[in-house]
Amino acid sequence: MHKSPFHGFSVEFAEHRLYNPGESSRNIDWKVYARTNKLFTKKYEEETNLRCQIVIDASSSMFYPRDAKVNKINFSIVAA
Protein backbone atom coordinates (compact mmCIF):
# COMPACT_ATOMS: atom_id res chain seq x y z
CA MET A 1 0.00 0.00 0.00
CA HIS A 2 1.09 3.53 -0.59
CA LYS A 3 -0.29 6.94 0.26
CA SER A 4 -2.46 8.46 -2.40
CA PRO A 5 -2.85 12.19 -3.07
CA PHE A 6 -6.61 11.66 -2.77
CA HIS A 7 -8.62 11.75 0.43
CA GLY A 8 -10.69 8.76 1.46
CA PHE A 9 -11.37 6.43 4.33
CA SER A 10 -8.42 4.89 6.09
CA VAL A 11 -6.77 4.80 9.48
CA GLU A 12 -4.13 7.34 8.40
CA PHE A 13 -5.24 10.81 9.56
CA ALA A 14 -4.47 13.63 7.10
CA GLU A 15 -6.00 16.89 8.34
CA HIS A 16 -8.99 18.73 9.77
CA ARG A 17 -11.28 20.88 7.66
CA LEU A 18 -14.39 22.88 8.42
CA TYR A 19 -17.64 20.94 8.41
CA ASN A 20 -20.00 21.71 5.52
CA PRO A 21 -23.76 21.36 6.07
CA GLY A 22 -25.05 18.20 4.42
CA GLU A 23 -21.89 16.19 5.08
CA SER A 24 -22.00 13.04 7.14
CA SER A 25 -21.59 13.81 10.82
CA ARG A 26 -19.70 10.56 11.35
CA ASN A 27 -16.27 12.19 10.87
CA ILE A 28 -16.85 15.24 13.07
CA ASP A 29 -14.04 15.65 15.59
CA TRP A 30 -15.98 16.34 18.76
CA LYS A 31 -12.85 17.07 20.83
CA VAL A 32 -11.91 19.90 18.45
CA TYR A 33 -15.50 21.16 18.62
CA ALA A 34 -15.29 21.24 22.43
CA ARG A 35 -12.13 23.40 22.25
CA THR A 36 -13.10 25.73 19.39
CA ASN A 37 -16.91 25.68 19.32
CA LYS A 38 -16.62 25.09 15.53
CA LEU A 39 -17.37 21.88 13.67
CA PHE A 40 -14.37 20.26 11.99
CA THR A 41 -14.27 16.94 10.17
CA LYS A 42 -11.34 14.56 10.04
CA LYS A 43 -9.85 13.84 6.62
CA TYR A 44 -7.95 10.62 6.03
CA GLU A 45 -5.39 9.50 3.45
CA GLU A 46 -6.77 7.12 0.87
CA GLU A 47 -4.71 3.96 0.47
CA THR A 48 -4.42 2.37 -2.93
CA ASN A 49 -2.57 -0.58 -4.35
CA LEU A 50 0.58 0.39 -6.18
CA ARG A 51 1.21 -1.44 -9.43
CA CYS A 52 4.82 -1.78 -10.48
CA GLN A 53 6.96 -3.79 -12.83
CA ILE A 54 10.42 -5.12 -12.08
CA VAL A 55 12.68 -5.37 -15.11
CA ILE A 56 15.84 -7.47 -15.05
CA ASP A 57 18.58 -7.15 -17.64
CA ALA A 58 19.02 -10.61 -19.19
CA SER A 59 21.86 -9.74 -21.55
CA SER A 60 24.93 -11.99 -21.73
CA SER A 61 26.95 -9.72 -19.42
CA MET A 62 24.53 -10.53 -16.57
CA PHE A 63 25.65 -14.18 -16.60
CA TYR A 64 29.24 -13.23 -15.63
CA PRO A 65 31.02 -15.08 -14.08
CA ARG A 66 29.56 -18.03 -15.95
CA ASP A 67 30.92 -20.79 -13.68
CA ALA A 68 30.22 -19.06 -10.38
CA LYS A 69 27.51 -20.20 -7.98
CA VAL A 70 26.19 -16.64 -7.80
CA ASN A 71 26.40 -14.39 -10.82
CA LYS A 72 24.77 -11.06 -11.60
CA ILE A 73 21.57 -12.57 -13.04
CA ASN A 74 21.03 -14.83 -10.00
CA PHE A 75 21.68 -11.93 -7.65
CA SER A 76 19.19 -9.75 -9.58
CA ILE A 77 16.48 -12.41 -9.39
CA VAL A 78 16.95 -12.86 -5.64
CA ALA A 79 17.00 -9.09 -5.07
CA ALA A 80 13.78 -8.63 -7.06
What labels describe this entry?
rod-shaped, alpha+beta, 2 strands, 19% helix, 2 domains, 80 residues, two-stranded antiparallel ribbon
Molecular structure report:
With 80 residues, this protein is of the alpha+beta class. It has 2 domains: 1-49, no CATH class; 52-80, no CATH class. The protein is built from 2 helices and 2 strands; from the N terminus they run βαβα. The chain has helices at residues 30-36, 72-79; strands spanning 2-18, 40-48. Strands 1-2 form a two-stranded antiparallel sheet. The model has no long low-confidence stretch (mean pLDDT 83).
Secondary structure layout plus pairing:
Layout: E1 2-18, H1 30-36, E2 40-48, H2 72-79
Share in β-strands:
25-35%
Count of beta strands: 2
Shape by Cα distribution: rod-shaped
Major sheet attributes: 2 strands, antiparallel
What Rg, in angstroms, do the CA atoms define?
25 Å
Short description:
This protein is α+β, with helices and mostly antiparallel strands and 80 residues long. It has a two-stranded antiparallel sheet. The protein folds into 2 domains: 1-49, no CATH class; 52-80, no CATH class.
